[in-house]
Amino acid sequence: MSQYAHLSVADPEFAEASAHLPKSDPTDDVTEMRRRFDSMVKWGHENNKLLSTPTSELRVEEHKMPVDGGEITAKCMISTPTGGSAGPFPLFVNYHGGGYVVGGLSTDEPWLRQICVEQQVSVVDVDYRLGPEFPWPYSHEDSYAALKWRITFSFMQIYPKGSSSAERPPVVASQQV
Description:
The chain has 177 residues and is an alpha/beta fold. 34% of the residues lie in helices and 20% in strands. It has a 5-stranded mixed β-sheet, with helices on both faces.
């Protein structure tokens, strides 16, 4: 077993970062879970020096779209390169992670802005409804509605993507379109 001893030693960068995360007791309070998650995401964004996007090279718009029993928000990021192509650009549709309970439009925003500018893609970040207030299959239905909504526009290619638990909705939505 000693040949694997190195695997039980935390990576130094991870150890340093995790030392700054707030220590807290487990909770079943969804509001408190969301507050803690948002706090952790905010800390990560503020301390990640690799995420820096010139805001002058993209336009950000929020759109409300009707879904069965309510509405959801999608944040659209459109690349506006100085002296570059005017598009059309490929479309990257993002579904944030968070176990269908936490997360939102701010979860992935810094790196989505960065890929919008650096890769010259249009980005749609979908804020699907969260549980337990909206149990499964709401997240999947919202994801499908958002993908269907964006397909009505003209794009070269469409790339749906999810993080963590949200990897499933874009796969299911893509098969339904």
